[in-house]
Amino acid sequence: MKKILTFLGVLFAGSLMAQSLAPYQKQITVTKGDAKVNVDSWAANVERGSEDELKDAFEDYVGKNFKLKTKKNGKHGMIVPEANLPQVTTRRGDIYVLFSSETGKPEMAVAFMMGYDIYLNTKDNPQEMDRLKEFFANFLMSHYKSFYEKQIRDKEKVLKDLRGQITDNEKKAKSLQKDIESNQKKISKEKDQLKKTEIENKNVAARRQIDALNEMNGNINKQVTNYEKEIADIKVQIANIGK
After folding, report:
1. Are 181 and 228 in contact (CB under 8 A)?
2. Is the pTM of the predicted complex or chain greater than 0.85?
3. Can you tell me the distance from the alpha carbon of 15 to that of 151, in angstroms, rounded to the nearest whole number?
4. Which residues have CB under 8 Å from 11's CB, separation 6+?
């Protein structure tokens, strides 16, 4: 349990940072066949998730929302070949995605190519580039939302376990209290002093167990309160993505 709490604490650290949904323009070099081609793109430093997680997220996003399939394109690249993306352009083309980590966090860039050296750019295709930017920003919104929702699910699993521990401890304490009450009746009827002492010692041990269980539940309740607050904070963060 301690390992789980530590892991989730790391996940939560810094989660209240505002997530930017304002991609910036960047020229990137993509692999097209055996050639390297410089193209204009929209890029963003992604605050949450590894490169592999982002690749999976993008594959799921274009698959579920646009019925498109991705392919690997080099170690740090992806391509959506012959993409029909009317939300961006009426022309069919390839979506190129490139990842880098120069800042220590994944940077993700997205470009749209219609031919060997023909690609969307702000000079010739300002409106389509704006729509490509919106497409990318919508993906980032979806990614951050999914990332935080997973955090909530993970924390809720721990909460369920913690609350289960509290319930179990309460049941044990209640059972021990019944034993004490039963023993008290035995003591009142018992005439043998040695047996009385033996029963009383059992009650002393039971009371100590009850105290330990109550102390344990007090500590667990503090953890429950902290996790409930973290979940509430993450929900606020989800509502404020991009604001």
Report:
1. no
2. no
3. 10
4. 151, 154
